[in-house]
Amino acid sequence: MSRASSMSDVARVAGVSAQTVSRVLSDHPNVGAATRARVRAAVEQTGYRRNRLARALVTGRSRTIGVVTHETDFYSASAILLGIQTAARASGYFVSTATTPSLSLDAIATAVERLMDQGVDGLVLAVPVREDVSLGDLTHDLPTVVVDGMRSSATEVVAVDQVEAGRVATDHLLGLGHDTVWHVAGPDTWNDAMGRTSGWRAALEDAGRLVPPVLYGDWTPASGHRNGTILGRMPEVTAVFVASDEMAFGVIRALAELGRRVPEDVSVVGMDDIALAPYAAPPLTTVRQPFRDMGRRAVEHVLALVTDPETVHEPEVVLPRLVERSSTAPRG
Amino acid sequence: MSRASSMSDVARVAGVSAQTVSRVLSDHPNVGAATRARVRAAVEQTGYRRNRLARALVTGRSRTIGVVTHETDFYSASAILLGIQTAARASGYFVSTATTPSLSLDAIATAVERLMDQGVDGLVLAVPVREDVSLGDLTHDLPTVVVDGMRSSATEVVAVDQVEAGRVATDHLLGLGHDTVWHVAGPDTWNDAMGRTSGWRAALEDAGRLVPPVLYGDWTPASGHRNGTILGRMPEVTAVFVASDEMAFGVIRALAELGRRVPEDVSVVGMDDIALAPYAAPPLTTVRQPFRDMGRRAVEHVLALVTDPETVHEPEVVLPRLVERSSTAPRG
DNA sequence: GCCCGGGATGGTGACGATCACATGATGGTG
DNA sequence: CACCATCATGTGATCGTCACCATCCCGGGC
């Protein structure tokens, strides 16, 4: 084809002005029924498709939202992205993604700028944004929702109650009779990870238990394995709360290598409830995170902000749910 | 801010015409050094950013590539997407994603149309496209590369040699002394899955072994578990080639539940080498797929097509590599 | 001294759509 | 029957950029 047909082509075929075509396509009320039908037919006949670029240029709206994610293949990231995709599509929006190789403010800012160059209407940051960062500076006041962030801050955040999540996991283990619970945490650059850690600590303190030192991982199963090797060598460790299922797989593997059985010798609770969690050995007790749902809600909220910048975020707190499987057992 | 600054704003500040600003920004040669500097300063001062939409409108290039993926959280999909993202960014391109809830031709066509509305310059289809489908009809002759497709077809495809992959896995098991190898395949709608199955069958036939009936899964661990329950009940099954690691987790779990040990009683080979594969119980022997690399190559090829539609695809065949871990052992 | 080539710049008109406003027809009302 | 509200449609300007062509100026060759 030499050139895609434009509105004036359609207008010519239908014998009306381009403006009328525009009205028909935008479902404007004030168009005669006969004209409308004629235009529809002409559109069909010419195979016309509205040019979104031209449209975006003049309206200032691209109907695209930008998503910044960390450049990893973690389950959580892809699940959130999936929720975002689905919700955006349902609302007739497009999704443009920018990954950032690092979590430094610079790298995130670069990703954001790339998306702004794209002309996105709103932004979902699926990366941790520290509380001391002014979101306005970062995003130049584009409607933005952060998926990993402190709910206490002024920024718009969609998140489950991570403190509660840490607490639920820990309480479950304490309830099984364990004296205390060890913790393999996520990187302290992530707000979600820190939230889980505080919940864990709070639960232990509330129960008057000893708070063991925190071990840190980087979300990868390999880092779980490293930490599992340490924990497995300490006979007093009977219960571990791991801040992600992927790390939990590593921990369990390391324990197995050291001859410590799960759950007979050590109980392990993960976090996320990834698709493979039920198929771990043993099936992993974990705290479910509604990733898709978070993505969906992030989109809904961004779109609300896009439509009306004055929208106030009502943080609906989603309570995480413990999914009990076989990696936890009463203290032997 | 009331309105982002435009080229004419910058031009006014620099005391030149908008055209000159455009030339400076496009690194056109014919601009005086002094003028160039002045314009650069003005750009800096006004915080000007070129409007990509307007640019795309007039040039007909959006510097965006569209990706169609299946709406799932499978590791493979997110890893490929990751490779695409990285490569696109490196080339200064943007990525817009559209997920399709089903693999029907209609659903895929809808996703493609959404992306075309977006004005993408090229397309990567990370979904299976049947050989009898005219890619041209689907994509209206937009530069397109398919990631899951038959290499034999006329379409532009980036893929590893799946037949070889199936063969490698099967040969490995036969080499360990197993009489034959059972197979849990992926859905027969996927070309990759079918390739693996043919490789498996060919390896068995070449070795003059009995070819057992194929069991089919849907890539999910749950489907692996279902099939594992069947296989585990048959004492004659000593070796299984599973078409994805995620299903392999399910198979292994089912075998464990039935009291069959891996690898002592049954050897299992997976496919993909997902991040969790080394942390399965036991660590999974599998065939590595270079997902990120495939994504990267898909982008490179699409961009070549965008630049020069006459580009001919040289299918560099990537040979898959067996990664031996502990889920396979010589026949006991 | 004249002419020519080419580097540096500016002006104009698309690109494809929408918006604000203008126009003409219609019909109901006092 | 004059008047105005309402609906249906057209006109012109505009969004921000780049392609194309015109213009100006300078230096060099003959």
From TrEMBL, chains A, B:
Domain HTH lacI-type: residue ranges: 5-59
UniProt keyword annotations, A-Z: DNA-binding, Transcription, Transcription regulation
Keyword Coiled coil included in the entry's annotation: no
PANTHER family assigned to the protein according to its UniProt record, in alphabetical order: HTH-TYPE TRANSCRIPTIONAL REGULATOR GALS, LACI-RELATED TRANSCRIPTIONAL REPRESSOR
Protein name: Transcriptional regulator
Protein species of origin: Isoptericola cucumis
